[in-house]
Design brief:
The chain is of the alpha/beta class. The protein is built from ten helices and 15 strands.
Length: about 375
């Protein structure tokens, strides 16, 4: 799989942009703040319909305009597919495949698969659990697009259940609460949550050895990594399937009800879970150095790329401003690992930061113009 062309209209800083691409390595070079990352963000958005930089779509639309369009020609098994996403903040996205509109934008998920590493990904190691949950869920959707519907169902039920908990908690303190409706929402939450839990736990089992291998290759002698899933249901062994996890989640919700009514929020479920990352037997968060954390986060993304490749259809690999943070040896090791990928896109403020082994097409980015270097 590779992107043959990227086109933007009113996306971020670009009124328009047309960039011809191809297999192999493409390097975008230019001063910080000139729009290199905006191009990479657009690719990631086409693949996942979300930004790795912001939580809402409003900043993605160029100031003074009301919508943005991101478009890519994706070649897979020598067959091109044109995918287009129209972003209009406050409204549902619109998607088209080969110029034909889709009923739902999420039906376009899976056409393009991208693994993107950016400086913000340091939060995978040093940040909040939400960063790590997002990594798992985005990788799940990339591997199995139908998981997007499961995740949306869970988020919808969670929002409604939290609203009910707040209103029921107040009524309970006043002596007039009817909790029968809460039983119904417990069942809905447990069913969607059990399916999401089963998918996440299976993914972590697949991811753990690949992350360990990638880290050992990037930073040999720095210690062994382990990744494990911490579930809010509680300690101890978990059921092995979605049905069992649904039952366990339902039991945990019943046990936590009094506390939840007092606090007006759902305390049990996948939205409270975490991916525990350890290095040399210690939590990476708080113990790993900056360089170790950077290599760990990068290893997570390289592992994601490897898993998706093993599934069939190698994803596009994007390395946004990564080499400036690595020493010479780690730069060389990373270049050796990714240099043979079907399509790699690299950004750098200084061309000298990119190892010579990553020889390919170069674009200069400055003043809102993307021009191919001669």
């Amino acid at each position: 799989m590779h992107v043959a062309e990227l086109s933007l209209v009113d996306f971020r800083s670009y009124a328009t942009a047309e960039v011809a691409l191809g297999p192999g390595v493409t390097v975008f070079v230019g001063p910080n703040g000139e729009g290199k990352t905006n191009l990479m963000e657009a690719l990631g958005y086409i693949a996942s319909q979300s930004s790795h930089r912001v939580a809402s779509d409003a900043p993605l639309v160029r100031s003074g305009t009301v919508r943005a369009i991101v478009r890519a020609s994706v070649v897979r098994d020598e067959r091109p597919t044109l995918i287009e996403i129209e972003i209009a903040p406050g409204k549902s996205n619109r998607a088209r495949l080969n110029r034909s509109p889709l009923t739902r934008a999420r039906d376009a998920l899976g056409v393009l698969r991208v693994v993107l590493f950016a400086p913000e990904d340091l939060g995978l190691v040093k940040g909040d659990p939400s960063e790590r949950r997002r990594l798992l869920d985005e990788l799940l959707v990339a591997r199995t697009p139908r998981i997007a519907a499961v995740r949306q169902d869970y988020d919808r039920v969670l929002k409604q259940r939290n609203a009910l908990l707040r209103s029921a908690g107040g009524a309970r303190r006043g002596g007039g609460a009817d909790l029968s409706t809460l039983d119904v929402w417990d069942a809905h939450l447990a069913r969607a949550g059990g399916a999401l839990l089963a998918a996440r736990i299976g993914l972590v089992a697949d991811l753990q050895p690949v992350v360990a291998s990638a880290y050992a290759e990037l930073a040999p002698g720095s210690g062994e990594t382990t990744a494990s899933y911490r579930c809010s249901i509680g300690p101890g062994p978990l059921p092995p399937d979605a049905e069992g996890l649904t039952g366990a989640l339902l039991e945990a919700l019943v046990a936590a009800r009094t506390n939840e009514l007092e606090r007006g929020i759902t305390l049990i479920g996948p939205h409270r879970d975490d991916l525990l990352l350890e290095l040399a037997g210690l939590p990476a968060k708080g113990y790993a150095s900056h360089g170790e954390s950077w290599s760990y986060a990068l290893s997570l993304k390289l592992a994601a790329h490897q898993l998706l490749t093993a599934d069939g259809g190698e994803p596009v690999l994007v390395l946004d401003d990564v080499f400036a943070e690595l020493d010479t040896k780690r730069r060389a090791r990373l270049a050796d690992r990714v240099g043979h990928a079907e399509q790699v896109m690299v950004t750098a403020a200084v061309a000298a930061d990119v190892p010579g082994a990553l020889v390919g097409v170069r674009y200069d980015v400055a003043g809102g113009i993307v021009s191919r270097a001669v």
